[in-house]
Amino acid sequence: MKSRRNILSSVSWYIHGDRYSFVALAVILFILCCATILALLILVRILTNGLHSVPFPGSPTQSSTPYSYRDCTDGLPYSGIWSSQLEGMRFEAFLCPDGTLIAIFHDQEIPESMTIGKAPPNLLEFSWGVSVDVDSDNTTGTTAGHFEGIVGADYRILLAHWSHGSERTVPFDNAHQVNVWHCIDDRSQLISDAEVFIDTQDGLLVLRGFIPGMSSNSRVLFSRFYHSSYSESTYKTDWVISGR
Known about the structure:
Blueprint: H1 2-52, E1 80-86, E2 89-95, E3 100-105, E4 113-116, E5 124-133, E6 155-162, E7 168-171, E8 177-184, E9 187-193, E10 195-199, E11 204-210, E12 219-226, E13 235-236, E14 240-241
Antiparallel strand pairs: 1-2, 2-3, 3-11, 4-7, 5-6, 5-12, 6-8, 8-9, 10-11, 12-13, 12-14
């Protein structure tokens, strides 16, 4: 009888011990599965952001956001579309519902480097810009005295460089700033930073910025300005009305 109890005790210990081992193994497998799923989710997130961002070469403010350079951040359709052509160059502008304006300059000659400081100190040396006449009224905004001759611009998104009076050659990436400006008569006030995307090989330059009060009834104008020593590179389109 005693031998029988010893056998039953041994069997019981074996069964319970094996059960504990099984539970421990199950817990370990569960933790490994969770870690694997988490790693896969992180990898998918990284790849997704990489596919939707636009790391254009030469851009000083390359976007780390998940939207394409010409898409609205909320995925909604444009509330206004503008397009124009001038001397073999093509221009587009898109207004997002949140007030973000996307201006696209095609067929541009964008240098890898520039010699700056040729103009006297504190003068605008060069710029790419999209001007916005929010109320489509020439009596507000910039006047006939504007240095580029742009009349009626209430806001401007500018990629620009103001001379420091010291002539030197620098990479184009380091030669400019990008901002939104509020224009009152012949004065301009910086109100926010903007984004730029550049593809020098395809001659593409894109400006993105928030324009207060803009609607599909507003007008836009595309321009490029160089100081007098580069006057052959200066242009501006006519005011463009929305096709939507």
